[in-house]
Design goal:
Oligomer: single chain
Number of strands: 12
CATH class: Alpha Beta
Helix content: 25-40%
Shape: globular
Mean pLDDT: 93
Number of helices: 12
Length: 292
Amino acid sequence: MQVTPTIHAIRHSFRIPIAPGITFDRFVYSYVVYGDTIILIDTGVAGCENQIFEHIRSTGRDPSEIALVILTHSHPDHIGAARAIQQTFGCSIAAHPAERNWIEDIDLQNRERPVPGFTDLLGGPVHVDHDLVDGDIIEADEAGAGEMLVFHTPGHSNGSISLLLQSERALFSGDAIPVAGDLPVYDDAALSVKSIKRLRGVAGIRVLLSSWDDPRLGDAAYQRINEGLEYLRIIHEVVLTSHNEGITDLMELTKRTAAALGLPPQAVNPLLARTLAANLQIKDSKNLLEDY
């Protein structure tokens, strides 16, 4: 799908096995930025390289033109096809240094953050060639379509980054902004709030390109950002209510919270439990959005 003159969005559908015969349907976006060369932002899960290559060819370009793959963070649905793409075309890989260990050592990631179906989602580890930190600018001679500004937006993960393509005022937010009503995933609720508020402060966003949501244009971009903040507030209040009622077992709290948020039974999994545990770390905060 063409979003702007230089940006195409590719939606990847995949399934996470929760239990025998039970799967959780998910999707994730990767983005192709066309210029003199091609930049790919995130890669989807293992096998998504074929969809990416086919899309690029359908636009009259060749996937061998991919010069740089930017990974907004290290989770399986973002790095799953990176190894195959890098091995096929020899492109460079860039990410925040806080994500490097989990990208280069997927066994370490699986031990520290187990995800159902982890090994099926990943095509293997990949070496990170370039560190991207807050304030970095990816120059036009690499992007071909104008400078790209790097924002460090932790919360979803320690080294999550967002990117602003200056010429299009297009904000690639990775998984920094949760989608109301969808599965929330973050490691630090307070940092998530701070990061989203920072992105909301970026002036003149014309298009919001999230990994978890369809592209949002104009005012709808800022509306989505505000909805993400409000969702974080609601989650925190629901978690505190259960905690104050004496629910100390994390999985029981997860079940109650999922039901209160209207999430399907499949959403009661280690990822959601990890997210809610992050809210318990700041249980003394009564108003998440005001406190952070």
